Amino acid sequence: MGNLQRLSDSDIHTLLRSAQDQHAPASLRAHGSHRMIGDLQLREIEPGQALQITGAKRRDQLPETGTPMTLTLLMGDDVVSFDAPFLAPLHGEGDLAPILRVGWPSEGIQRHPRRQIRVAAPQQTPLAAKVRVDRQEFQGLLLNLTEAGLGLAMKEVLVLEFHTLVKVDTTLPNGSPFTCEGEVRHFTHLEDDSYPTRFGISILKASEPDLENLRTFIQVRRTDRSESLRQADH
Question: How many CB atoms lie within 10 A of CB 217?
């Protein structure tokens, strides 16, 4: 994500009050997990104590109280996120879905332009990547990126065997590095294309910091996509 900002209590209150007034779209993810609770909205703040979030479904699997979470909010052209513990939800009567609660941010807030997440997905701007096969290194483009795999485009006309091991290095648009090792799962050659060689790579190995950078990037991107779909429906 962006740089960690240490804001004063009054600045945090002002920021989150603005997010509440906007009913800012939100998502939650437990640390170390790729599972996300999405399509949420910030509805209420308890100054200095907690944030109340609506939109959870009764079928959602909620984390245990005290679980460290990352909350992501979309505010106009900015993405705001911070870490906070999951608090006991407020349960409504009957079949009403619970109102989720997370703690007040105390470890700083991360903020960056929303445009930075519109990459590494179909129809979006690709990322530059270094691709290593054995002792050879190639420059390529990372066309899409998920928790399980990625798609690569390369200028060189290469033919790699199924299960060939490759190492990929890139920098996510928020400045976070991402390195992984994977294996070739499918191959396509496109005629008359400036990047004719296309590979589908299944991720086999990455460090925990790299995986956390990937999870954070994908969480923000999904929250943005949920909001875009919501606006299209209105």
Answer: 21
Confidence (pTM)? 0.61
Q: What is the pLDDT of residues 6-34, one digit of tens each?
A: 677 888 899 999 999 999 999 898 988 87
The enclosing H or E element of 12 equals helix 9-21
Q: Which long-range contacts (CB under 8 A, 24 or more apart) does 119-127 make?
A: 119/173, 120/144, 120/145, 120/172, 120/173, 120/217, 120/221, 121/145, 121/221, 126/153, 127/170, 127/171, 127/172, 127/173
End-to-end CA distance of the chain: 30
In sequence order, the β-bridge partners of residue 30 are 69
Nearest to 146 by CA among 167, 122, 111: 122
Q: Both tokens of residue 74?
A: 């979309």
> At 194, is the secondary structure helix, strand, or coil?
coil
Q: How far apart are the C-alpha atoms of 220 and 22, rounded to whole Å?
A: 18
Separation CA 146–CA 229 (nearest Å): 19
Taking Cα atoms as reference points, which of 67, 78, 76 lies closest to residue 28?
67
Backbone angles phi, psi at 217, to 5 degrees: -60, -45
Separation in Å, CA 148 to CA 24, 81, 101, 116, 123 = 29, 23, 30, 21, 19
3-state helix, strand, coil in the chain (%, to 5): 20, 45, 35
